[in-house]
Design brief:
By secondary structure, the protein is an all-alpha fold. The chain contains eleven helices and no strands. Helices cover 69% and strands 0% of the residues. The chain starts with a helix and ends with a helix. Keywords: Membrane, Transmembrane, Transmembrane helix.
Length: 274
């Protein structure tokens, strides 16, 4: 009983990065090189580090979306290098939060979600909602919990986390005014391109999720869990566009992930067919 309780307070959403693998070595070098170039082009060490970290997190996001193909993540990371030429700010914590949410849903670590997993990410969601005065982060968390409940047995801890996040979302939205529609120009070239890419991503994920994928323990990942995490990613980006002041550099990263994965997957299928 004590061991069971202890296991529920272990964080299982981390993934080991073995530098014996060439792909891990490559992304580390690539991130450092981009950080150095960013320092030179932008003129600030901190900005260079942010852009370099953005490249690494782009790669990480792509690995969650497409764990089957190692090199699609590098194509996405290369696209995110566009941030070198127009830099304002990168919300690294938001990207990290998205990665954790996806891991909760897809179970790629091969571990069952623990109490600490669910409530540490809930705590991060609450922090982001208060720090940005935006309850959309809590709504996204509720959506992630709903996707888990649809596929798995109704866990008390998942239900509890869902109830707390839903309650806080209602309070922040209706009593604190933390949810407002972003009245941007949705006919601008950037927004039209973003919305088209997000719309097409749902089609991409339907086919991408058919690929056989193994978790970190070597067990097969259920297609629903992979597809649910992929859909969650695009839903998050859409909600952030509509209900938050999404940084342009973050948008570049998110679109780079989808476009990079899409181009590699289509090319891979065409080559395999030939």
């Amino acid at each position: 009983m004590i061991d069971l309780l202890r296991s529920d307070f272990i964080f299982t959403l981390g993934r080991n990065m073995d530098f014996n693998y060439r792909t891990n070595q490559l992304i580390a070098i690539m991130s450092l090189v981009v950080a150095a170039i960013g320092w030179i082009l932008i003129g600030k060490i901190s900005s260079g580090l942010y852009v370099g970290s953005g490249v690494f997190l782009t790669w990480s996001l792509s690995r969650e979306l497409d764990p089957k193909h190692d090199y699609s993540a590098f194509l996405a990371a290369a696209f995110s290098g566009l941030n070198l030429f127009y830099y304002e700010t990168i919300q690294l914590l938001v990207i990290f939060w998205i990665i954790l949410l996806m891991r909760i849903v897809n179970g790629i670590t091969g571990e069952s979600q623990t109490f600490f997993d669910l409530f540490s990410v809930l705590g991060l969601s609450i922090y982001l909602s208060f720090n940005n005065e935006n309850s959309i982060y809590l709504l996204v968390y509720v959506l992630a919990m709903a996707l888990i409940l649809i596929n798995r047995q109704k866990s008390k801890k998942v239900l509890l986390a869902s109830g707390i996040s839903l309650g806080l979302f209602i309070i922040e939205t209706f009593f604190m005014g933390y949810l407002t529609f972003n009245r941007a120009d949705y006919l601008s070239l950037v927004n039209v391109f973003s919305l088209v890419v997000l719309g097409l991503s749902f089609v991409l994920f339907w086919f991408l999720s058919k690929e056989k994928v193994e978790d970190d323990k070597g067990n097969p990942v259920k297609r629903y869990e992979l597809l649910a995490s992929q859909f969650l990613f695009s839903a998050i980006i859409l909600l952030l566009i509509l209900f938050s002041q999404l940084a342009i550099n973050n948008l570049i990263i998110y679109l780079s992930v989808i476009v990079g994965v899409a181009i590699y997957f289509i090319g891979y299928k065409l080559i395999k067919r030939d």
